[in-house]
Amino acid sequence: MSATGQWPDLALMFGLIFQLDSNRVNAKGRAPRVSELEEWSRRGVIGLEWSAPTYDELSRDAPDGRHWHKISGSLVAHPRLTSLKEFQQLAEIERVVFPGGPRNTGERNDALAVFTAWKYGAIFVTDAKRLETLILRP
């Protein structure tokens, strides 16, 4: 809930949900565009959340770090695959993002994070160069 008490209603009503990748955790406040998203979220203009793969990655790789403390307790979207269409969409994301297929768990988690944003109609925010032009519509 935002300080204005309007989120998640306003953000969900207009579909303004952003999911941040682990490389967009603004733990030191040095990413001005992410700081702006965080402020908009506090004001209830947008929803800001993490996918479960991103959340799990940070909890595993930096459980005592600044990044983990920044997102701990935040809204988490789970990528439960429940239909053939969803399995096909995940396979397509893997094919587009990793043309030879994901080579390791990290790459599989990256594809799952993108899938999670697709599934919930969120905008996926990352600093990964390979995803700069990837646009998915649910």
Strand fraction band?
Answer: 5-15%
Number of strands: 4
Low-confidence stretches are 1-8
Order of helices and strands: HEHEHHEHHE
Summarize model confidence as the mean pLDDT.
75
The strand order across the widest sheet is 3-2-1-4
Describe, in plain words, how this protein is organized in 3D:
It contains six helices and four strands; from the N terminus they run αβαβααβααβ. The chain has helices at residues 9-14, 32-42, 52-61, 66-71, 84-97, 105-119, and strands at residues 17-20, 47-51, 76-77, 123-125. α2 links the parallel β1 (17-20) and β2. The longest helix has 15 residues, at 105-119. It is globular and about 40 Å long. 30% of the residues are buried.
Describe the protein's topology:
Elements: H1 9-14, E1 17-20, H2 32-42, E2 47-51, H3 52-61, H4 66-71, E3 76-77, H5 84-97, H6 105-119, E4 123-125
Parallel strand pairs: 1-2, 1-4, 2-3
Helix pairs in contact: 3-6, 5-6
Concise overview:
By secondary structure, the chain is α/β, with parallel strands linked by helices. It is built from six helices and four strands.
